[in-house]
């Protein structure tokens, strides 16, 4: 199993949900109004550093990784290149 961590601008919400559904990811957890600093600069949700991101956490099977990657590559460039949009995959084990 793998853990997909998807950090994205709030405007990409439906794109991320659709991608997960298309690859058969049946469950996910969304963390909203995430602030931080990355390649797009500070996003603190205030007038000085506007904008916030969301984070989607999803456990997927190994064979779902490549279809998810392919599907997320179709996200419009405005999100991938100009706004927050990063995907991380790591090994995952369920303990409980």
Structure in words:
This protein has 96 residues and is of the alpha+beta class. The protein has one domain (2-51, 63-87). The chain contains 3 helices and 6 strands; from the N terminus they run βαββββααβ. The strands form 2 sheets. It has a 4-stranded antiparallel beta sheet with strand order 2-5-1-6. The protein has a two-stranded antiparallel sheet with strand order 3-4. The model has no long low-confidence stretch (mean pLDDT 91).
Helix content: 25-40%
Q: Could you say which structural class the secondary elements and strand pairing correspond to?
A: alpha+beta
Tell me the radius of gyration.
Answer: 14 Å
* Global outline: globular
Spans of at least 5 consecutive residues whose pLDDT stays below 50 are: none
The proportion of strand residues reads: 35-45%
Let me know the largest β-sheet.
4 strands, antiparallel
Number of strands: 6
Order of strands in the sheet with the most strands?
2-5-1-6
Q: What's the number of structural domains?
A: 1
**Global mean pLDDT:** 91
Ends apart, CA distance between termini: 15 Å
Number of helices: 3
Q: Give the helices and strands as they follow along the chain.
A: EHEEEEHHE
């Amino acid at each position: 199993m793998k853990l997909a961590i998807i950090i994205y601008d709030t405007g990409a919400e439906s794109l991320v949900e659709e991608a997960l559904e298309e690859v058969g990811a049946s469950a996910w957890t969304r963390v909203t109004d995430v602030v931080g600093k990355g390649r797009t600069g500070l996003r603190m949700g205030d007038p000085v550093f506007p904008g916030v991101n969301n984070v989607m956490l999803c456990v997927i099977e190994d064979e779902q990784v490549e279809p998810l990657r392919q599907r997320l590559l179709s996200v419009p460039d405005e999100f991938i290149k100009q706004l927050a949009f990063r995907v991380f995959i790591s090994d995952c084990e369920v303990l409980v």
